[in-house]
Amino acid sequence: MNTLLLDRTTWDLLPDASGNMAVASGSYAVCQNVASAIRVFMGECYYNTATGLPYRQHILAHTQAAPVFRMQAEQAASAVAGVAAARCVLTGIAANRQLSGYVLVSTTSGDVQHVGF
What we know:
The protein is α+β, with helices and mostly antiparallel strands and 117 residues long. It has one domain. Helix content is 27%, strand content 26%. The strands form two sheets. It has a three-stranded antiparallel sheet with strand order 3-4-5, with helices on one face. A two-stranded antiparallel sheet has the order 1-2. The longest helix is centred in the N-terminal third of the chain and has 14 residues. The protein starts with a strand and ends with a strand.
């Protein structure tokens, strides 16, 4: 599976050495797509408004239990092509209320990777 390669800092498209759009493949592409799936707000994707996490509806400015967010992140990750299993691990919440953690992704090719957020 291939996907357009995104810059890890800006989450913007990257050119390859020839000036064309760079492409990611293999486990890296799967992990990048998992990260994208977790970052997407529900309703944000123009062609499929049902994808994404319900950040506006149920997460931001709402009291929510950690297990509920964990389940939503795992469901979003599991829906990505190439993912065999996903497990969300929350590592902390900063003073500015920024949640941190990662999703442990098992790909259908047998690789195990973690995708941070």
